[in-house]
Structures are given as C-alpha cells and as structure tokens.
Amino acid sequence: MPEPILAVNGLVKHFPVRSGILFKRTIGHVKAVDGVSFDLMKGETLGVVGESGCGKSTLAQVLMRLEEPTAGAAVFEDRDIFTLRGAELRRLRRNIQIVLQDPYTSLNPRMTVGDIIGEPFEIHPEVAPKGSRATKVRELLDVVGLNPEHINRYPHQFSGGQRQRIGIARALALKPKVIICDEPVSALDVSIQAQVMNLLDELQKEFGLSYVFIAHDLSVVRHLSTRVAVMYLGKIVEIGTEDQIYNRPAHPYTQALLSAVPVADPSVRGQRQVIRLEGDVPSPIDPPSGCRFRTRCWKAQDICATEEPGLFMRDGGHLSACHFAEQRSVVP
Ligand SMILES: Nc1ncnc2c1ncn2[C@@H]1O[C@H](COP(=O)(O)OP(=O)(O)OP(=O)(O)O)[C@@H](O)[C@H]1O
Ligand code: SF4
Ligand SMILES: [Mg+2]
Fold it and tell me: The ABC transporter domain covers which part of the protein (predicted)?
C-alpha cells in the first residue's frame, strides 16, 4: 500500500477584502481555497487542474508556508506543518520546495546562476558547507541538463527553457522530498514544454520525488500524473487516477474541461461532444450557494442550490462532488 507523504485536510485560505480611505474595514473575504483535502502519495505526481482564479497558486503558497492558512491541517512526516516554528520550520522548508511558472521573473537578474542555485545553502549550510558549494552547484547544473561551465553566467544569458531548468536546480538543491510545481511550463514554447516535463519525470524517478503539479489544462498534466484533482472556485470537485479522470470523468465540470482539450487525431475530433460552459466563473467573494458550479452546470436541479455536494465515492467509481455524478467518456 503506498503511504501518503503529505496529507492535506480541510485546508482553507480566505483573504480579507478591505474598503474605506481612512479607516479600512473588512467588508468580505476572497474564499481562495475553501476546504481542500487530499493525500499526496510517496513518489506520485498529483496533478491539480482548474481555471484561472480557482485557488491553485494559493494552495501552493499555503503548503509552502508562504501564506498562513485560515484553517486546516497538512501533515508531513507525522507533523502538521502549520504548527512548525523556528528550526523545525526550516527543516520543513528543506523538504518541500516550489518551482514557479515564470522563469523570467522568478530568477534575480543581478545574481549569477551559481549564486541563485547556491542561495538555499546560505540558509541551510548543513547541506553544503561553504567549501563544497561550487562543486554542488556544478553537479546540480549537470543534473538538470545545463553546462556546469556556465555557473558564472546571468539569467538573461539563458533561454526560457534553460531558465526553468535553473529554477528546477534551485528547487533540488536541498534534496527535497516534495516539489510543488506551479504551472512550470505554462510560460514556455510548446516544443520546450515537453523537454522540461521529461526532465521533471526523470528527476522524479532518480530522486524518488513526489510532485504536486499545477496546470490550467488537463492535457498538460496527463502524462506525468498518477492522479488528478480538478478544482473549481476553491474546492476539489473530482479526484481520481489518470484513467478515471480522462476516461470516466463523473463531474460535469471535468467533463466540460475534457471536452475542450485539443485532440490531435482528426478522425476522433469529429466524434467528441463539445460541452460549452455558459457564463463566467462567479466571484470567490460570494460563491453560489449549494454547489458552486451550479450557475454554469447544464445538469443543475433545485437541490444543487440548497445542498452542497460532498466529495465522496459516487457512481461506483472515484471521489466526485456532484449530486448527479455519472461516469462517462467524453473523448472517444
Ligand atoms: N494575496 C491575495 N489577496 C487577496 N486575494 C488574493 C490573493 N492571492 C490570491 N487572491 C485571490 O484568490 C483567488 C485565487 O487565486 P489564485 O492565484 O490562487 O488562483 P490560480 O488558480 O492560481 O489562478 P491562475 O490559474 O490564474 O494562476 C483569486 O480570486 C485571487 O484574486
Ligand atoms: S451538484 Fe448539481 S450543479 Fe453541481 S455539478 Fe452536480 S448537477 Fe451540476
Ligand atoms: Mg496560479
């Protein structure tokens, strides 16, 4: 039985909305993440997919302890990471690392690549004592497929894909167990995306890493993910294995997302049913009552406005949060 390396339970992050010129008053909350639970298993990749603004980056930031949660727990190696302070929090920071979306803004342009990748050693000298740092950085450059001789170059001397490799090397420096990848290939050309995905795949096998892999689009995470969680307005609406999500999705939102994924094979393209979502994503300040997806759902009925569907096993399959969950294949 695989064991969870990270167990997230009831995670909530609300941002206060303030108004007033002289006296700022809280007039509401952005419910960016609103009760998210999942297990990340050792060595697996959990894809997290959803439209812009559904709370993916907030989830990542909270798990990195860059934002404090409003409520909930996340257990890593038997400890709730939100209770850690001081030296224990520093140790956690070694074990959970992040790779960000934009390789152009996430690297300091005034630092050499060697300093960027070696910076984590300043905070964690126990991983690499001063004398061994340059060797370690060269090793990391080599591991991510960059020339170790380029250690003294600056970020602008690298292409987008190479910069993302620098970001990955930096994330690997402290030998983490978990890496949260927040749309690491979204800003890259399609041809480069596959190379970076392959690199992440190889590194996972080599170092036994577990990934939370965030993306906009179901097609991006398919080949890397063991399981996929679909988010809508701060909640997970469906979670299952790659086969369950892509071949037998049960939630209308997942079905709609899948029906919009580009299909390469023209003979299949004509057979698939395209589900067009009506309207925009509602505001996370005042989400719809009951099921948050109901304002855009073609299956909605009265109960959907009054009763929130919980995330549990439905229709004999996997976890989904819909009163009328029904597995069906969208792409033939
Ligand atoms: N620091 C903040 N203060 C207030 N609201 C915030 C803050 N950070 C995020 N939000 C809001 O929380 C919601 C979720 O944002 P988040 O960035 O997590 O979404 P996302 O799924 O990562 O979107 P994208 O796909 O565009 O990156 C949005 O409505 C956003 O405006
Ligand atoms: S609970 Fe109702 S509104 Fe929500 S997804 Fe299911 S059918 Fe649609
Ligand atoms: Mg984001």
Answer: 17-258
Q: Which H helix or E strand runs over 139?
A: helix 133-143
Give 19's strand partners.
25
Nearest ligand to the CA of 182 is 3
Contact in structure between 62 and 35 (CB atoms under 8 Å): no
Assigned token pair, 243 = 């086969």
Are the C-beta atoms of residues 230 and 238 closer than 8 Å to each other?
yes
Residue 124 CA to residue 101 CA, distance in Å, equals 24
Q: What is the pLDDT of residue 112?
A: 95
Percent of the chain whose pLDDT exceeds 70: 98
Residue type at 112 in one-letter notation: T
Side-chain half-sphere of 156: how many Cα atoms within 13 Å? 3
What is the radius of gyration, based on Cα positions, of the chain? Answer: 21
Q: How far is the CA of 73 from the centre of ligand 3 (A)?
A: 21
| Residue listed under structure tokens 């990848």 | 181
What would the DSSP string read from start to end of 236-276? EEEEEEHHHHHHS--SHHHHHHHHTS--S-HHHHTTSPP-P
Longest dimension (CA), the chain: 68
Distance (Å, whole) CA 313 – CA 252: 15
Mutate to test the pocket of ligand 1, among 13, 54, 58 (most ligand atoms within 8 A of CB): 58
Band (pLDDT 50/70/90 cuts) for residue 332 is low
Q: Ramachandran region of residue 309, left (φ > 0), alpha (ψ -120 to 50) or beta? A: beta
List phi, psi (to 5°) of 34: -135, 65
**13 pLDDT higher than 80:** yes
